[in-house]
Amino acid sequence: MSNIIRTETRKRGLFGWIFLIIFWAFNALMALAFFAGMNGAAESTATLTTDAERAGAAIGTVIGAGMIVSIWAFGAIILGIFVLLTRGKKIIVETTAN
């Protein structure tokens, strides 16, 4: 007796590929911005002398990191929804296995 194996595939259209590329480029850009910002903050805090300067730098670093992460999360959610909505029609391929 042969078994029928059903495999689900999707064919992404032009807009689907455009949104997918924009999604990955946005995530790469935001990761680069985050790590560059953290590196810049670490380099600038090495020369601080007073406690007030160090406290201000720490607070500014947290605010900046929070803004970058917030923009990253909102952008990734919005672009992720577009990527999911443009993934194409479902195609079911049936094969028989002996």
Neighbour order of strands in the largest sheet: 1-2
Give the H and E element order: EHHE
Structural class: alpha+beta
Binned strand content: 15-25%
Q: What is the total domain count?
A: 1
Shape: elongated
Number of strand segments: 2
What distance lies between the first and last C-alpha atoms, to the nearest angstrom?
7 Å
Unreliable stretches (pLDDT < 50, length at least 5) are none
Helical fraction equals: 55-70%
Mean pLDDT, to the nearest integer, reads 92
The main pleated sheet reads as: 2 strands, antiparallel
Number of helices: 2
Transmembrane segments: 14-37, 57-85
Keywords: Membrane, Transmembrane, Transmembrane helix
Commentary on this structure:
Keywords: Membrane, Transmembrane, Transmembrane helix. The chain crosses the membrane at residues 14-37, 57-85. By secondary structure, the chain is α+β, with helices and mostly antiparallel strands. It has one domain (3-24, 42-97). It contains two helices and two strands, in the order βααβ. Strands 1-2 form a two-stranded antiparallel ribbon. The longest helix has 35 residues, at 51-85. The mean pLDDT is 92.
Which helices and strands, and how do they pair?
Blueprint: E1 3-10, H1 14-45, H2 51-85, E2 90-97
Antiparallel strand pairs: 1-2
Helix pairs in contact: 1-2
Transmembrane segments: 14-37, 57-85
Keywords: Membrane, Transmembrane, Transmembrane helix
